[in-house]
Write a structure and sequence with these properties.
This protein is mainly β and about 300 residues long. The protein has a single domain (about 5-280, about 285-300), classed as Beta-galactosidase, Chain A, domain 5 (Distorted Sandwich). About 5% of the residues lie in helices and about 40% in strands. The protein is built from two helices and 22 strands. The chain has helices at about 5-15, 250-255; strands at about 20, 30-35, 35-40, 45-55, 80, 105-110, 115-120, 135-140, 145-155, 160, 165, 170, 180, 185-190, 195-200, 210-215, 220-225, 230-240, 240-245, 265-275, 280, 285-300. The protein starts with 6 loop residues before the first helix and ends with a strand. It binds 6-O-phosphono-beta-D-glucopyranose.
Amino acid sequence: MTINKSAETAQAEALGHVTFLDGQGELPMIEISTPWSTAEIYLHGAQVTRFKKNEEPPLLFLSQCSRFLEGQPIRGGVPVIFPWFGPREGLGQHGFARIKDWDLKAIVAAPDGSVSVRFRLPDYSEASAFPPFTAEYLVTVNQALTLQLITTNQSQDAEFTFENCLHTYFDVGDVTAIAISGLKGVSYLDKTASYLEKTETSNAIRIASEVDHTYQNTTGTVEILDPRLGRKIRVEKQNSASTVVWNPWIAKSRQMSDFGDEEYERMICVESGNVGCNSISLPPGGSSTLMVKLSSETMK
Ligand code: BG6
């Protein structure tokens, strides 16, 4: 694949902040370097697969068994789920944005040291089932990783209804030792119990079995306390009313061919978006930006 580089992109490359590489499966990948951190992003799915602050272990989990193949999702990092979440009759799970190559529009190295990468989803035939729309994705790397998915309804007369989700896989020392806070009192659908509606009772959620919860009508920050890695992760979001918490645990891990049998011990997904009853309807010409900021601090 040839990457068309804008003048800003060429400048960021010349300054040594950006390197274009063949990643796994020889898929094109962009390596970003800032004074505080490094990151890797594939054009396939516009998927961030790595973010690492200089003095910390990697923030994102990436499966050793992931596929890196055209038409297949990458297992780990931050898959961009759009324009639908979960299964859809006759169509693949979690939309097509995560299995398609995105166009690189620009990479900008800002004077403050941040590096931003802008992608755009090309017009794939799968989009013809929807009113015309554009989807752009802006990834900003600095002390934190900030992700913005910008969707615009380009139709003159039709409403565009969609779901989105930044399906973030976090690296943790031991999933049974973490505590997830910020969801107490929020109602959720429990997919492991036939989508039964429940209310979260804990402000320190523990993982001791398969978890697949879709929390609804919740816009708040979620934190993951990880005593084994000595780290606290913060998931801040804007224009997101849903949070999904997922860990496949033992049996599901064994069923997934692109995931190691024991890898569930080292990961947790805390996903931010708008799914199910929180799906978004944009009027003609309307636009909406899902923003997620992922940051972390070490605990002394
Ligand atoms: C989560 C869903 O968001 O993604 C789970 O809530 C699903 O039900 C998981 O199993 C992984 O999905 P996939 O398609 O990447 O295997």
